[in-house]
Amino acid sequence: MIWLYRKLILASIRAQMQYKLNFLTTAATTGLIMVIDFLVLSAILQRFDQVKGWDIYEVGVLYGLASASMSLYRLIAPEIHDFERYIVYGDFDQLLTRPVSPLTLLLTRNIELARIGGIVQGIAILVISLYGLHQEGKNIVWLLAYVPVSLAVGTVILFSVGLATATIGFWTGQIKDLQTFTLYAPATAANYPISLYPGWLKLLFYTAIPVAFMNYMPMSYLLDKGGSWTALLMPLGMAAVVCWMALRFWKYGIHHYHSTGS
Amino acid sequence: MVYWRIIRKSYIRNLQYRIAHLINNVASAIFGFVYMAIWFGVLDGRAGSSPYDQQTMAQYITLTQCLLWVTTFHTPGLGIQNGVRTGAVSTDLMRPISYFLYVMSMEFGKVVYSFFYRFIPVGLILGSIAGFSFPLQLQTYLWFLLSLLFSVYLGLLLFYITGISSFWTTEIRWSHYILITLIFGLGGQMIPVELLPGLLGKLSLYLPFSGILYAPAMIFLERIDPDVIVMQAGWAMVLTLTALFLTAKARRKVEVQGG
After folding, report:
1. How many CA atoms, within 13 angstroms, populate the side-chain half-sphere of residue B203?
2. ipTM computed for the complex
3. What's the gap between Cα A23 and its chain centre?
4. Rounded to 5°, angle at Cα A96 from A95 and A98
5. Number of structural domains, chain B?
6. Per the confidence metrics, is the pTM higher than 0.90?
7. Average pLDDT of the residues in B219-242
8. CA pair distance A31, A47, nearest whole angstrom
9. Residue B195 resides in a domain
10. Which end of chain B, N or C, is more open, meaning fewer C-beta atoms within 10 Å of its C-beta?
């Protein structure tokens, strides 16, 4: 299985590397908006010191984690993210005839290498912020150690939400507008402290679209903003639960799939 | 007139998507909501250190989120690069009408549509959170309208120039990203440009990007002098000449790809 994944992914990488210059420019520019967005935020926080008790480096940690996770999800699952066309053009029928599960096929078909640009820029923001915290005399050992966990949790959560959104496409045929609700807006909101938002949004970010778990919850504890050590374990549990639920929902969706016909 | 008909046709074509877009407006309002929440958090208890209070900032965000729909969320490159890639552009250039006005009219129809089905609804949703406030002086409406028209035109011009560059580069994805980034960053989408640090704060007031979001929003809020419209008009002239110059160059550059 892993052997097959490796082989298919390598083929996809080779295909994309046929256009090296295009790859480099796209990779460099995909993260650009994100960086400018963060620079504008730095400008605001440089003037007003902090937001809800979080200074620029602390927000930078949230920002870096959330945006790198989003780019990681977009890197590994472009076909899930753009699943709409499989439904609209009826391409999904083809996948059902293969001897491998449709999800494996979709995940191995393509990885969107240009997203590496976004990952690098997200991690750069993270590194600068951690360095800044270190300069302020904060102990960042635990933060550093937890970063890979947070990135993995974030990617799994966003992937699960993305997969569930794609599954809704089996009934609605369209998912692009829905993604703004389920992915883009929550991921943007998670760039900043969740404490900024009113109660009903907080509730949403802790339950149905649990983006609070991918950075805010564990980092609040690690940056001494409150919470207990369980804040380091709960994200793992949440990631496992949403992933399981999303997979169940996906299987349920496939059973109810009707082709568009031609 | 032929351009009027193009605008009308493009408007009617866009009308087909209005139900989906009306739903989408709610989603896109969430972004405005996030930016408002940041400003509320930042200014909480520190009203003295800012020239703008929380409500003004919320209204500013409301206005820029609305303006984005008629100035920035256009078809990338106004679709010119697609014609260049497929070769269809050669037919468009042969038509007995101005290519520049033809492309601009097509997109302008969409802008008119976006005004009614994006600008207004997003304004209503975000305004209900930020609180509605309308200018007291009658002439402000006039200045705002004028500034709005210039901001729409400036946005279209920048998109057109990006699109026309495809005659030389074929691919405009990266230049499109850079354009959007500049409009978002230096246009004042999240922060009034004069609050940007140091030289950037002073310089960006004179760049065309601030004429796209910042100028009309601040005129509506009666926080800047309408003189800024002169700056918008100046850039509109410079960019129109640039666009026409590049169109003339491009006309000579037409290559037919493929066979």
Report:
1. 6
2. 0.83
3. 21
4. 70
5. 1
6. no
7. 96
8. 25
9. yes
10. C
